[in-house]
Structures are given as structure tokens and as C-alpha cells.
Amino acid sequence: MSATNFTPQQQQAIIDQDQNILVSASAGSGKTSVLVERVIQKILHGASVANLLVVTFTDAAAKGMRDRIQQALRQAVDKTKDYELKQRLRMEINQLGIADISTLHAFCLHLIKRYYYLIDLDPQFRLLTDSTERILLTRSVWDEVRETLYATQDAAFEQLTQNFSNDRGDDGLANVVSQLDSFANATPAPQQWLQQLPQLYAVNDVSITKSDFYQQQVLPVLTGTLQQISADLNASLMQASGDEFSKVKVVLEDELMQLDEVSELVSSAAWNEIRAKLLSLKFSRLYGPKDEEAKVIFAGIKDTRNECKKQLQSLATTYFALDEQQTLNVMHASQKVVTTLADVTWQYRQAYQAEKQQRHVLDFSDLEHYAFDILTSNSTDGQSVIKQLQAHYSEIMVDEYQDTNQLQESILQTLTSDHPGNLFMVGDVKQSIYQFRLADPSLFLRKYEQYQQPKADDGEAIILAENFRSVKNVTDFTNLIFKQLMDKKVGEMDYDQAAELKYGATDYPEEQVPTEILLYESNITTSPDELQLVPDDKMTGEVQMVGQRIKAMIEQGEQLYDRENKAMRPITYDDITLLVSTRNNNNLIVEQFSRLEIPVTVNDAQNYFQATEIRIMMSLLRIIDNPYQDIPLVAVLRSPIVGLDENALAYLKIQNQTDEYFAAVLSFHDQFDVNTASDYAQQIYEKIDRFLNQLNQFKLIANQNRLVKLIWDIYETTGFLDYVGGMPGGRQRQANLHALYERAHVYEDSSFKGLFQFVRFIEQMQRQNQDLGEAPAQTTNNTVSVMTIHASKGLEFPVVFLMDATHHFNKDRLRQDYILDARDGIGITYLTDERVKIDTLQKQILKDTVNRKDQAEQMRLLYVALTRAEQRLLIVGTYPKIDQAINNWQRAFQSDQMQLPDQIRAQTNNFMDWIGMSLIRNPKFDTNLLTTDAVWSGLSGDPTSFKVKISTAKDLNQGDEDKQPDEDLAIQDQLTQSVSDMDIEQSSQEAIKQVLHFNYQHVAATMTTAYQSVSEIKRLFEDPDNSQLGQLEFDPSARQKGRYVSADLGQPRFMQKTTIPSAADVGTATHLVLQTLDLQQQPTIEAVEQVITRLAVANTITKEVAQRINRQQILQFFKTELGQQILLQPQRLKREVPFSMLLNGSQLFAQLSDPTERILIHGIIDGYLENDDNVILFDYKTDQVRGDNQTQAVEKIVQRYRGQVNLYGQALKQMTNKPVAHKYLYLLAVNQLVEI
């Protein structure tokens, strides 16, 4: 951009001086051009580049800045006819190479090398740049510090260790110490920051509610939550306006009254009084209207009300779980733990510093701290150096100022002058997305607000709002979203007129394409014929949807405007960039795009240690070190390195079923007899023999050579490196394997040796979800790019897809046993002597604080994503049910202001919900999607153009059923014709054609399994008089699933976050009690209690489940006619009887016509009475009977289980050779016996 094209605001930022200047430069506003032009103008007016300090965020930015300044200076040399100026400019060009245009780290290194003597630092040092070496060193130092502390047997350290560790190890303590160390490093005074951490817990007031901590930190959180609940309930009350909602209105009004009482108490009452009120809240049952149309409205009201109820109840469990004295006790005990933690962290820091000094190495944090020590030295020489530096630099320019931290700010401030100020800062706080690197956007925000005050004399704020990057609609869309989302309360700054983007790229054509919102609905009902078209998971469907949209762009020749040539042109693949929040789905994108024949380049590989090829290599290294590890061994045997399938793995294990898997492998190999072995065994043997020979070879190399020699020998011997090159994403996979070799090299160069230590090091990193960075892969031209939003910052792309916008924000750090904040310190979970974990009140408040900061960071991340687009913006997401998403978005109508309600914005957990809520009040939103008549006129004049498109699996696959077979037949015909044209014998031709046209006779049998459970096929047996039993259509996905079961596996219990038992848990436990209860006499409440206690003590059921078992329901069963009959003849009773039976496959599946095909059915019968000439079957059910009409509800449950009981009857008849006289369902919830 030439100087004549600068806007007035840009010109102001270029020429203003003699004061501190903060330039708030919005996305695409040309801040780099402004910064370069300011440097040029200073040089042209007599300043020297040697007297400027220009600080950039990255080395690449520094190089780019230097190159642009050089180019501008050369142009100035060519233009001027002033000989003296020409010579001076040439001298400036020569000085550019040594000018202070660099990252802050590079500048600090320069200071240290020059003034090391001021801090008594040995000048002979090297920089610890490799992450592998740094991680190894920190782990080694921590291990030494930890062992030393263990040896002291200090009670305080023992309590600290228990507080942050678990039964698997003390990595939890290592993690919190490491995190505290990182936070301390970002401050000018680390020791002081650590020492003040316990002060947060020093609440010494008699009453908690009168303390500053409560008034300043707790009360605002409670008040904000209660206000939002009130707004939600009032909105629901407005919806319940008709007579049919009279009962609903009574309930909502009562709850609003209770809410008002709570709101008054939290502001004025004592702790225990507030707690008592919250714990005593009563919530009545909502009864909905009969009218079908009103039921739709009622569903939304009920969802909102239940969410309010949940939030209100959570106030009691979150903040008021303990009474006042208990809360104070926990605070005081936690203060001691935090004091010890701060002390241990300081000991670790000292030990780490000593180790680095001994090794003569510095890490990046040392650069900043040592530079700060130099600049704050109180010695005579130190003061002299500071004055020299301040006099030397006429101006200090800082790019990306919003990403600095407190320590970096302190370094810069020591170099500046006060009268006049000479600090020039450029950045955009809306693009501050490096909180995880401890960037502090509040530094920018404070100056931004301070410098805009009418009488501000300490600095000037200049706003660059024009966006010269994007078409008008992208700018309008961004403003539409953020003027409703971002303010000080939630986004940490107001998105006001000054912050809004102004359209500056006026060279674009007026006609522009609307922003597209692409939604994939994953949880839809499909017919059996369509099941084969349903993607395996939601992300697969979403990626397929995006792939098809990209194909349509290319094949239909959709256009972009070429700004350089001033003409329209077709979109190409390299115009398109997919922005992702995480890298977890990158391999899926590569796979699906490969199937669609879309070229793609992934700029951010999936997490390095999670890549399949790296996991295989690490498994191989583990078994080279110790082959008696079943999981790594099987992983290698199953991998392409050996190539066994599941059947072969099972065959090997049969050889030795009691020892480790490697023993079974050796047994098979040693006992193999070529004369008696089958062909199948021979095939396995050849692979195992080769594997064992290679394993012995690798062991020998590992013992006698370096690790890198071993890894490279594995690549050459197995051909694994070449193999992965032929897989999807082959270049990246090969780059990953090369990187493993390089990282092993670095590992051994860091004085750490041996295969075992290397494997252990990698395992530690994986446990802590750490990575060593990604391996760069070669890129190709004209491909779709995939990169993270963070990596895209500072870049721009013609077409942007924001992928997986419904991906939930990462809240992992809020779930840990500690929460850290640079300003407020640390909140911990305290472990009592009884080993009960209690979240301290300080942690709960910090959790809210950090969550709000995280939400603000996510908002800024969304801003960065949207503003990368030049001409096309497409936002993509997936919901199970779109109508549920729309109902959630409609909460936006609660606000009659431009900003959405505070609490809603703060609680939203994905980009798409923010966007949806911001669009739904716009009159251009498709009203056919709405379930409310609410309107808001505040956006009636908004110029934004957008469209929402909803796709399902059926939409994605429309037309494929007809197209694909035709393509297959065409290929088959081509191959057949090629065979006919070949000069080979007729008999051989016929044999080849027979193979090409071969049709397997039993295709139907491949579409199911020979094993089904009762619950999976129970609907086929609902009518016992139907001899055909009904038939199922095949689910083609059974090939992968194995049976007709749910695709979702239950979460392992140890991973479950909630401790509330599910209805299924309680039902299973109830069955156990009925199964084991002694029936030789009439059961009593004491007898039932003894059984439950015995099961709980034996850990067969949990205590929580035991408490929820309904004792009276169990006793009521034995008062029924059937129960009395059982008690009269308990010897005839059979309980929990397993069975298996074979059924003809043609009875189950319409496609199985072969009468010899059999299916194995299995199940467990709750109980039956076997009489002399018949049997009586019964089955317990613990299902809740819901609804106003109990008769209908009971019939619904009966219909649900009718097929299951009928199948039990058929099995029982075969087992006993006796007719089944009666079949009963007993519903414990309503004490009702129903005959089937």
C-alpha cells in the first residue's frame, strides 16, 4: 500500500509521536503496512534504524518486517534525487542486518550476551531450544526433588502428595508443580507470586458472607446466576399464556417467588441461612396440556424450566455443600496445603536453575528473567546501562501487543521514556488467542480504555477499523455476530462502534455470496434400505457434507473475484481452507476427501503420538525392550509389520491359554511340526518365524548400538517406512516416522541413553497429553488446506470453511483438582483425612473466573476464524436433532437488547450456538425452522446475507444408489473386454471372466452374525401366534458391529464424572436382591436390608446404588398371588436361568432363504416355577410408569417387553419339554402383575 492510499487513521498512526501510542488494528486493517511505513517515515525524517527497537511475535514476522522495510528503503533510494539522503538511506539498508528487529526472546538474548556481567552469569552457555531435551531435563530434576522430599518424611509434604495424587502414582503433583512454575515464569517476581498464593484462603472473619472474599468474588457470581434463572423462568412464563397452561403458570410463579427469596438472602443473610433455603427449595411437577399444538410449546417450556431447576440446585451443591464452620475448616486446611505447594514449587525452581547452570544452558524463560534482572539492576554499572539503553532507543515498537504477558510488559517498560513517551504498540485484543501461553490481554485493554479518556495525557489510542481483506458480507456477518456476543462482562471488551469492522475493500464487486451455515443432523430415523448410507459417526457425515459442497464449487464453476487481474475466475482447490479447532479429525478429513478425490494438505498433523504409525513403532520398541507386554505385542502382530488378523491372534493364544501372550507365541513356534500342521498354521508360522528372527535382531542392535541405529534398522528390515507412504496421508506419515528418528537422535544427544528410558519418557509424555510438535510434510499445489484456527492467525484465504463449529469448548482444566489464574492464584480440591474430595469455595469462584476468561478467549478465537475469509465463509456443524438446537437458540429472544443475555453467552459451549443465537433474531432467518412466534425488530435493517442449510445422511447419499452400481458394471465390462482382447488361451479367458463375474451365493449370510441376544431381536416375538415370528431387514453395518447392538458403548465406570446411579444400575441391583433373597420364609424388611448390605459390603453394588433400592417394592411382589405361590413351593423356583437356543435364520431375516442357516439366541430368564405338568414364567421390570394415564403407561411397557417374554416362553418350552401355562411381567414401580 503506497502512502497516498493510507486512511486518515492510518496516517495518524504513521506520523503521531512524542507520546505513547496504542494502535487497535482490527482484522485486515493493514497494521503491518502501517508499522513499516512508520519506520520508513522516521528514517526519512532523520532517525536511524539502529535507534529503533521493533519487537515482533514470531521469527517469521521479524524477517517479513525486515524484508518489507528493506524493500521500502530501496524504493525510496530509487525515487530520491537528493544525494545525501540517498547515501544515508543506503547506510540504513546496510544496518538493517544488525538492527533490533526481532522477537522479544531474541532481543533478550542480545542483552544477556552483551551485559551478562551485571548478573554474574557465565557467558559460556547454549540455548535449550529442543523441546525433547527440555522435557527430559525438567522430569529428571523433578524426580530428584521429589525423592529428596520423600526422604524427609515431612508430614506437610505427605499431605500435599496425597492431595494431588491417586492410586496410580503422583503425576498429579508433578503436573500442578509444573503448571505453577509456568505461571510464575510469566511474572516479573516468581517467588513473590508463589508466596502470595495462600492469601486467597485467609478468610478470618467470623461470618463468611461479611468477608471481602464473599462480597467481592462470591456474591457477584451468585447474583448473576440467579438473574439469568429469573430471566429464563419469566420467558417461559410469557410462553405459557393460554388457559391450557394454567397449571404450568402456577408452578412457574411459585418458583419465581422462591427465587426472589433466595436472591434477597444471598445479599443479606448469613451463610447457613442461605444454605438452608437452597436445600429446602421445592419443585412441583409440571403437567402439560392435552392439545397437540400446545404440547410443542410445553416441551420448550419444560426444557427451559428443568435447566433452571438444575442450575438452582447446583448453587447448593456447588457453593453451599458445607455449613459455615465446615467451609471455614476446609479453607484453613487448604491454606496449609497451598503453602506447602508454593514452597515445593520454589524448591523445584531453584533445583532446575542450578541444574541449568551446571549444564551451561538457558531456556526461553531464562532469557526474559535474566534480561529483566539486567534492566532492573541496582548496581552503578547496571544503572548506567539502563540509562544508555533508554537514551539509545528513540522509539520502541511492539507488534501483536495483545499477546504479551506481565514479565514482557515489565521488560519493555524499563526501556521506555516517560517524557515524552516513546512506546508504540500495535495489536488487536479481539485476536488475543494465546491465553494457554499465558498472554495477558488485560494489559492491552487497560491502555485501550485509559488512552481513550477525554483528558488522557499519558498516551493516545488510534483505532484502525477498516477491513481491506474481506468482502462486505463477511464484514457484515462478523459484526452481526459480535455486536450481540462481545462485551466487557463476557468478552472482556465492548464490541461497540469503535470496535466494529468497517468495510474497506471497496474494489470487490457489489454482488456477493451469502454466508452459509451448513448443519448436519446426525440422529435421524432411517429405513432399513438406507442404513448402509448412514456415516459411522457425526464427524464422518459432516466431513462428507463439506466434501460434497467443495466438489459442487469446483464442478459447477463457482466464481471468485481476482483482485489483481480485476476479473472473475473459477474457484480452485487451493482457494479453499478448512479451519479446525482441534487436530483430532484431520486424518478423517484426509480419508474422506481421498474417497471424494479432493486433494488436501494438512498443515497441522494429528497429535503426533496418537498417529497410528507412531503408536505401532512405540509398541514395537516396547516389546524389543520387554516382549512380555500383551497389548503392545498384539498391536505389533496385528500391524502391517507382522500382518496377523484376529483369527490368527486367537489361534496363537489357544496354544497356551494361561501364560502371557508372548509365551503362547513361543509355544506355537517351538512346537510347530511341518508334517502335521495345516495350511493355515503354516501361514501363521511363516509370519511368526520372521517376526521372532527380526525381534532377536532388533534386541541385539538395541543392546550394542544407539537408539537411532535401531529405529532406522526397523524401517529398512520391515519396510514399514515405505508401507505408510502408500497409505492416505502418506507424506505426513513418513514425515512422522522420520521425526521419530530425529527425536531419538536428540534424546541421545541430551545425555539420556537407552531404549527403556526412551520408552518410559514417551509414556510419561502421553500420560500428560504432551507432544513434541508436529513433523512437517511436503506440500503440493492446488490442494485444499486444513489448519487450526491458531495457526491461521495473520493469514487470509479466499474461501474458508469453519469446521466442527458444534465442537464443545475444552473444559478439561476446569475438571482438574486445581484451577490456576495469573491474577487470583490457585483454587484446589481438598482431600480430607477420610479421603473425601471437597472443592474449596475458592476453587469454585476461580472456576467461574477462569471459565469466563476461557469463554472470552473462545469468542476471540471465533473472531479470528471468521475474519480469515476474503470472499466466501461457510460455517459447519452437527447436531443430533436440529429442532433441539433451534429451541436452544430461541433463548436469544429473552433479550430485547442487542447483546444476548450474559449468562447464556457465558454458558454456551460451542461456536455454532453463539452464531445460531445471533442469527435467529434476524428477520432473514428462516421462520419455518422456528417453534416460537417471538420477533425482535432490533436487527430489521441489518444488511447481512446468510442462509441455513440442513443435511442428513439421506441428503448426502442422494443418487449414489443408482450411480454406484452403474459405475461398478462399467468397470467390470471394461475389464471383461480387456481380457477378451488379450492374446491368451480361451480356457484361461473363461477362467478370468468367471472370477470377474463371480457372485457369492450366500451374500445374505454375510450381512448378519450367528449370535444374537434376546434384547436385540425381541420385537420379532411380540405375537406368540405368529409362526413366522416376523423378519428383520439387514443392517449392512452389522459387518462392522458384529451384532444388532447399539453403536455406542457405555463409558467405563472409572471414566464417569458423575456419582449419581442410573436407573439401569438400580434396576440391576434390584434384580440381584430378588435373585439372592432367601424364600424359605416370608421375606421381611430386615431380610431385604441384610441382602442389600451384604451386596454392598462385597462391592457387588455401590453404596449409592444400595441407598436407591426400593425395599417396599421388593416386599410387595411377594404379596401378589404369584409371590404367594412361590413362597408356598420355593423348591420349584428357578431364578436367573441362562439359556441358548437355535432358530432358523429365515425366521429372523427375510434375505436368508437357506433353511440350514441357524442363528444362536441367548438370554437370561428372571425366574419360573416348574410344576409337574407345566411351567409358570415371570420377569421383573423396574421401569418407571410415567404420565397422567397409568393404564396407558403400563400398556406401553407391556408392549415394549412382550416380544422378550414370548421368546423366553419359547426357550423355556424347549428346555423343560413342558408347556408354559402362564407368562407374567411384574412392574415393581406400581406393584402390578400383568399376564402376557
From TrEMBL:
Reaction(s) catalysed by this chain, per the record, are: Couples ATP hydrolysis with the unwinding of duplex DNA by translocating in the 3'-5' direction; ATP + H2O = ADP + phosphate + H(+)
The entry's ATP-binding residues are A25, S26, A27, G28, S29, G30, K31, T32
Q: Which Pfam families match?
A: PDDEXK_1, UvrD-helicase, UvrD_C
Q: What is this protein called?
A: ATP-dependent helicase/nuclease subunit A
Enzyme nomenclature, EC number: 3.1.-.-, 5.6.2.4
Highest taxon, organism lineage: Bacteria
Indicate yes or no for the key word Iron: no
What family, per the record? Belongs to the helicase family. AddA subfamily.
Q: Which GO molecular-function terms appear in the entry?
A: 3'-5' DNA helicase activity; 3'-5' exonuclease activity; ATP binding; ATP hydrolysis activity; double-stranded DNA binding
Gene name on record?
addA
The record ties this protein, via PANTHER family, to: ATP-DEPENDENT HELICASE_NUCLEASE SUBUNIT A (PTHR11070:SF48), UVRD / RECB / PCRA DNA HELICASE FAMILY MEMBER (PTHR11070)
Matching entries from HAMAP family are given as:
AddA
Q: Which UniProt keywords apply?
A: ATP-binding, DNA damage, DNA repair, DNA-binding, Exonuclease, Helicase, Hydrolase, Isomerase, Nuclease, Nucleotide-binding
What do we know about how this protein assembles, alone or with others? Heterodimer of AddA and AddB/RexB.
Q: Does the keyword Isomerase apply?
A: yes
Q: Name one GO biological process term.
A: double-strand break repair via homologous recombination
Q: Which cofactor does it need?
A: Mg(2+)
Q: Where is each UvrD-like helicase ATP-binding domain found?
A: 4-471
Q: Which InterPro entries match?
A: AddA (IPR014152), DNA_helicase_UvrD-like_C (IPR014017), DNA_helicase_UvrD/REP (IPR000212), P-loop_NTPase (IPR027417), PDDEXK-like_dom_sf (IPR011604), PDDEXK_AddAB-type (IPR038726), Restrct_endonuc-II-like (IPR011335), UvrD-like_ATP-bd (IPR014016)
Write down any Gene Ontology CC term. Answer: cytosol
Residue intervals of the UvrD-like helicase C-terminal domain: 498-794
